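Chain A, query sequence.
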Amino acid sequence: MDTISEYMESQHRHCDDYFVEAERAVSEQDWVLAQRGFEAFHRAIEHHFVAEEEVLFPAIEAIAGSSMGPTQVMRMEHEQMRGLFSGMEQALAARDSDGFLGAAETLLVLMQQHNAKEEQIVYPMSDQMLALQREDVLEKLQTGVAS
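Chain A, predicted structure.
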């Protein structure tokens, strides 16, 4: 990956793949596969959120001199999505496909809007603002090491 945008967008696609797998398994009421798929999705998206919250956003904020603006909005949206995860876990435990799929539909809308903002605003901004630190930031994003 040459840019921060490319790397982070690939992470979005990776999370999306797991999400689709879990949703499909719930629709088919394959509860073992649904649990596995949701756990993989949940791990992947939390890893992505933490990389943004502990590496990317602080790097942007250090240069911008403020934690207000797009990064603050992204953090708030992460919390909204996290709120849906527990409901999805409860629905899985209860084998409640309607409950899971309802929460998944809400989450999908939030993720699509959130990812569009990141891919159209935050990531291009990070490529510009962090151009001199690109390699260091990419390494930290990939290894999960915050400075």
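The radius of gyration is 16 Å. The chain has one domain: 4-143.
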